[in-house]
Amino acid sequence: MPELPEVENLVRQLKSSILNHTILSSIALSPMLRREIPKDLSKNTTDTKIQDITRRAKYIIISLSNAYSLIIHLGMTGRINIKQGSYEPKKHDHVIMHLSNNLTMVYNDPRRFGLIDLTKTNSLYEHKLFSHLGVEPLSENFHNAYLLAKLKDKKSAIKNAIMNNEIIVGVGNIYASEALFLAHIKPYRTASSITEAEGTLLVASIKKILQQAIDSGGSSIRDFVSIDNQKGGFQKLFKVYGRRASPCFDCGSIIEKITQAGRSSFFCPKCQK
DNA sequence: CCTTGAACCTGCGGGC
DNA sequence: TGCCCGCAGGTTCAAG
Hints:
Blueprint: H1 4-18, E1 22-28, E2 48-56, E3 59-64, E4 68-73, E5 79-84, E6 93-99, E7 103-108, E8 115-120, H2 144-151, H3 158-162, H4 173-182, H5 196-215, E9 256-260, E10 263-267
Antiparallel strand pairs: 1-2, 1-6, 2-3, 3-4, 4-8, 5-7, 6-7, 9-10
Helix pairs in contact: 1-5, 2-5, 4-5
This protein binds a DNA duplex through residues 1-3, 5-6, 34, 58, 73-77, 92, 109-115, 153-156, 160, 163, 165, 172-175, 218-224, 241, 261-264.
């Protein structure tokens, strides 16, 4: 379900709703997501206070007062809801935490591609999930020289390269197509063929698309909703994603769809070189 | 090394 | 209506 903008929105909402709350109880209803839910989840979260909520790549990190951090990834269909009052578990609910002030946090994920883990906060970034990750796209570390150096010897397509978490994190299938449209680059171009001028424009385009999507509350196509089930608005601003056979808003050419590494890519054959 | 493709799951919409 | 197929905001691991 989520790329960086959706996760960023979720993190901001969680901060404003459950920061400094206490976890009174937590229970895992199923043993497995993409990985096993830690058996010590309940023991190491109960009676702790939520001290910080941050994001790295598409992971949500909830730091607790007992020096542990909860790591949550939503996969394709994960949701986190915050409910007021009593709560009856629903289909595909996997973890339920009761919080102070009569709130309940629910992790629901039909496809179970998501993940929940628990680790010591002081060694968080040495965690296997984080150790190989590349730069945050909205940070100053993501700039033209960095991108060009990473693309220099890459034989894969540029779209796959910007979705590669070892290069940049957070760019998924929607925003990869949208950013390449904004940068006027065809998705199947070889990564190493990107010129300096194109690289500069691509970096700016990725930052711009992600920032706009964050500001719009993320994209809601089928699954993504906020902690209180509100939809995002960026799907209304898609220029190419999901628009196969429709006219390009800029030049009127028909938007094409191709498959790359098993994922759909959308582009304008005229605007993108 | 490096790149591609399958696997993990469930649900939904389209075509017949 | 019902069944089958393809497809879905992700990541990882095996095979070539």
